[in-house]
Amino acid sequence: MKTLFLTSQFKNMVKELKAVLPKPANELSCAFIPTAADVYEEKPWMYADRDELIKLGLNVFDLPLKGKTKQEIEEALSNVDIIFVAGGNTFYLLDEARKSGFVEIIPKLVEKGVIYIGSSAGSYLACPTIEAATWKNQDKNIIGMTDFTALNLVPFILFVHYKPEHNDLLKQEIPKTKYPVRILKDDQAILVLDNKYKFVGQSEEIKI
């Protein structure tokens, strides 16, 4: 079964993840991809997410993408149960995911049943494109990227870290995309099981 758990801020959604794990956490291995945070000196969100995975009991190991070959990535992920892609700069993450071959490897692993968890930029990466990262002044396109094509693991794009002040922006941008848009607050996630998905968390789905 294809399983994805896409969050705005993972540390707030740990309990909801625990409910969908196929085995006790201590029997599962988790590759933690910290790459999106490479460009920041301070990265408390990344450490917070990793700490929560460890507290959950998962067997976590770091797998930075920068400088890795496709073969190295394939070998590192050959026996994992979960791939966690942390938040940070979405453009940098996608660039390194392409250079390392990560974008070619992940769809095949997800189809085989490896669980994909995204937090913020890691959730954007799972979408058909990361175009929503260009919609607000949060991520800087430090790569000068013009092709925003991403993993295409789900048929919608995400807008994360939603706050009510984003409503005008979303009303302006949503009509411009050809994809359905799903909006997440920091206390929400989307759980994808095969071709079905549902919102989980404390808040109702946001409609613009």
Overall description:
By secondary structure, the protein is an alpha/beta fold. It has one domain: Rossmann fold (3-Layer(aba) Sandwich). It has seven helices and nine strands, in the order βαβαβαβααβαβαβββ. The strands form two sheets. The protein has a seven-stranded mixed sheet. The longest helix is centred in the N-terminal third of the chain and has 13 residues. The model has no long low-confidence stretch (mean pLDDT 95).
Attribute tags:
208 residues, alpha/beta, Rossmann fold, seven-stranded mixed sheet, two-stranded parallel sheet, 9 strands, 20% strand, globular
Topology:
Blueprint (H helix, E strand, L loop, with lengths): L2 E5 L6 H5 L10 E5 L10 H13 L2 E4 L7 H7 L5 E4 L4 H11 L1 H10 L3 E5 L1 H5 L31 E3 L7 H7 L7 E3 L4 E6 L2 E6 L7
- The overall average pLDDT, rounded, is 95
- The CATH superfamily title: Class I glutamine amidotransferase (GATase) domain
Which stretches of 5+ consecutive residues score pLDDT under 50?
A: none
Number of strands: 9
Over the alpha carbons, how many angstroms does the gyration radius reach? 16 Å
CATH topology: Rossmann fold
Annotation field: number of helices: 7
User: How many strands, which pairing sense, and closed or not: the largest β-sheet?
Assistant: 7 strands, mixed
